[in-house]
């Protein structure tokens, strides 16, 4: 894929660019059908779409010394330092650089995956580990006793949007606030807040399909209509109101939330949502 930025300004609004990162081993799965439905609808409504199909391309999951082309094999591997050097020198592997190009190109990123053991599949986590290089997704901005970098609302991906599209085998009630599995927003918090908000994305509420193994043709048509509605609101829907790190809500240098900013009784992950 060749990605070229001309820097020109057109009178007509530019088409939006969407990257779908898809992680399921079976093309005929529900996840595969949702990915196809997203791509078809986005293209039909005038957007540009790239799909990274991790299983189809045999994505290498584990980050190791082979990811850093100029790493001395006799030298101890320090992943953060090696990642920073390789990113700065253009010495990451071609597959990683290609995905980084897609991230820079995209106006929005959608991660499509099944919820396996309360998280994303290992292959998708491996995409994050390898593509989110030091200097791109973290380690950017001023780091001092006054500022801990451009992160949590700032960073390389600020101004872009992101959304999770997730399938879960359990019932919706199982993932409710009092459900046995825990609240789905809490389960997805490390991904939404940590993987997406940390490097700057505006993160939209997740699209979650429950009882995924029981979805029949009629149910899928309803899901597809709901998904299309979410896609039509990709640039207008209000994102999850996460607090920004450098907007004054956190003490320095501890980065503890200042007292009195939360609604009475608020605890846990919800402390990091702005009261609205």
UniProtKB/TrEMBL annotation:
EC numbers, comma separated: 1.-.-.-, 1.6.99.-
Q: What top-level branch of life does the organism fall under?
A: Bacteria
Q: Record's Pfam families?
A: Flavodoxin_2
Q: Show where the Flavodoxin-like fold domain sits.
A: 16-231
User: InterPro entries recorded for this chain?
Assistant: Flavodoxin_fold (IPR003680), Flavoprotein-like_sf (IPR029039), NAD(P)H_dehydrogenase_qn (IPR051545)
Q: Which UniProt keywords apply?
A: Oxidoreductase
Q: What class of enzyme is it?
A: oxidoreductase
Please provide, alphabetically and separated by semicolons, the GO molecular function terms listed in this UniProt record. Answer: oxidoreductase activity
UniProt KW Metal-binding keyword: no
Keyword check for Transcription, yes or no: no
PANTHER family xrefs:
NAD P H OXIDOREDUCTASE-RELATED, NAD(P)H DEHYDROGENASE [QUINONE] 1 ISOFORM 1
User: Which protein family is named in the record?
Assistant: Belongs to the NAD(P)H dehydrogenase (quinone) family.
Protein name listed in UniProt:
NAD(P)H-dependent oxidoreductase
